[in-house]
Amino acid sequence: MKTTVALSPAPGSDFALTEVELTEPRADEILVKIAATGLCHTDLSVRDTLPAEMFPRVFGHEGAGVVEQVGAEVEGISVGDHVVLSFRACRVCGQCHRQGVGYCESTVLLNYLGTRMDGSTTYQHDGAPLFGSFFGQSSFAQHAIAYADNAVVVDKAHDLRRIGPFGCGFQTGAGTVLNVLQPGSDDALVVYGAGAVGLAALAAAHGAGVGTLVAVDMMDSRLEAAAGYGAAVVNPAELDGASVVEKVKELTGGGASHALDTTGVAAVIRDGVSALRPRGELAVLGLGAPELTLDAVDVMMNGKVLRGSVEGDSDPQEMVPRLLALAAAGRFDVDRLISTYPFAEIGAAIADSASGAAVKPVLTW
């Protein structure tokens, strides 16, 4: 069938709306008519770093839409179901069972290579294969092929134009708070990088009644959004000679019990660890510098923990419904973070995200 996608023809290129061919869903696949897709920094960072031989390509991994076809082997999903699309996992390997689906042994093959496991592609353009299958969906498209393992059936009362980010960005931030760090009413959580993921973390922490919240960012618009969740805010450019570590310790009564970093910047992570109280824990969520230097004496003598987290250690089949329920109950207020754009305005959405004019752009058909 023919469909329209936001095509990335080369590394770092602008997206262009292009008509392409989409294959029929196989026995283990579903066809989803996409209503909207969240724009995530991962779409852009991967676009900018993959080699040229892995293009042209269709990105998008926060899709939401309506199921139009269901393969013969698919269970639990029916034509007409509304779904949020998330990341893929095999769900049968040892890592999926022991560590969780975010740490699947086949993560790269299922989510990043741009093909099915057999090397075929779901999209074609001008008779040539077109890389897709990004997070098992490539939902910068009017129609996408997805799978039972990464399609979460949701109540039809939810607005499909606003729930796609629950499949990745919102899930990652909230999951890190609720599943990984689990701070309580007597704790202090610091978020470094108040973009969509960081603000989702603050929204979850605010809803869970965490005692002290702090947000560190360079953009005043993001800090204003963080303050809306009751967070004290720190702009490193406005500290008049004081350090971020000193300011965070002041705001948290001696140091943070919990922290998370979305920036991937080595210096920020180092400051985050330094600003922890004894036995504090910092979770790293953003990809960035491959190396960083820490004060090993400080880490050891104070029992500090630095750890990574993929998708907030979430299983989308459980976490997406959980977060939607929390949102409906007013305990995960993230709708305020969303700005919608027609897909034809994807360039403006990217620019607004970079400038801070929009926190979480969502592209709609």
Automatic annotation (TrEMBL):
InterPro entries: ADH-like_C (IPR013149), ADH-like_N (IPR013154), ADH_Zn_CS (IPR002328), ER (IPR020843), GroES-like_sf (IPR011032), NAD(P)-bd_dom_sf (IPR036291). Residues 12-363 form the Enoyl reductase (ER) domain. The keyword Lipid metabolism does not apply. SMART domains: PKS_ER. Its cofactor is Zn(2+). Pfam families: ADH_N, ADH_zinc_N. Keywords: Metal-binding, Oxidoreductase, Zinc. PROSITE patterns: ADH_ZINC. The keyword Oxidoreductase applies. Belongs to the zinc-containing alcohol dehydrogenase family. PANTHER family: NAD-DEPENDENT ALCOHOL DEHYDROGENASE, S-NITROSOMYCOTHIOL REDUCTASE MSCR. This is NAD(P)-dependent alcohol dehydrogenase. The lineage of its organism: Bacteria, Bacillati, Actinomycetota, Actinomycetes, Propionibacteriales.
